[in-house]
Write a structure and sequence with these properties.
Elements (H helix, E strand, L loop, with lengths): L1 H18 L2 E6 L2 H6 L3 E5 L4 E7 L5 E7 L4 H17 L13 E9 L5 E10 L4 E8 L10 H17 L2
Parallel strand pairs: 2-5
Antiparallel strand pairs: 1-7, 3-4, 5-6, 6-7
Helix pairs in contact: 3-4
């Protein structure tokens, strides 16, 4: 009986650990990350939709429509900005001209809501990619982090990458 309990608990722990949120970091130029004196935080891509229209002549026309960011994405960006600035003392500015580094965020959602993945790209003033992080949320049914916890988790991961830890 005890052996069964040990095997069961070991399996359960392995499952939970494999389904937890995770960070996959690739640091390409760690020495350059350390030289950035001020960062901006912005979206990597403009949110939009693509429409393909068929004309009566048989030609097609592609139309790109800007739809704006989701409210949860805007909240994520704002919360990350202030967490990084206030809790981790990362030098952030909202003025692009004052920054020599950019933190680009690209959030992906679960179909039913909540953040599934957040891709972060750290870029220098010349546009060179210094680092890339993929922050994956936990399993939707077991170890899912709500928006607030996921944002805190992401802020800690970004601060660690910037500080070289």
């Amino acid at each position: 009986m005890n052996r069964f309990v040990v095997v069961f608990l070991t399996s359960l722990i392995a499952f939970v650990l494999s389904a937890c949120a995770s960070v996959d970091s690739k640091i390409y130029a760690g020495n350059k990350v350390q030289t950035v004196s001020a960062w901006t935080l912005e979206f990597a891509y403009e949110s939009g939709a693509v429409e393909q229209l068929k004309k009566s002549t048989g030609d097609s026309e592609v139309k790109v429509v800007s739809t704006g960011q989701l409210p949860s994405d805007l909240q994520l960006r704002d919360d990350l900005f202030f967490m990084l600035k206030d809790e981790y003392a990362i030098p952030l500015t909202k003025n692009l001209g004052d920054a020599n580094g950019r933190i680009l965020i690209h959030p992906i959602h679960f179909l039913g809501g909540g953040f599934k993945l957040l891709t972060i790209t750290l870029v220098d003033q010349q546009g060179e990619t210094l680092a890339r992080l993929k922050i994956t949320n936990g399993d939707r049914n077991a170890t899912f982090k709500d928006d607030e916890d996921f944002t805190k988790y992401a802020a800690r991961a970004i601060a660690s990458a910037i500080r070289g830890k």
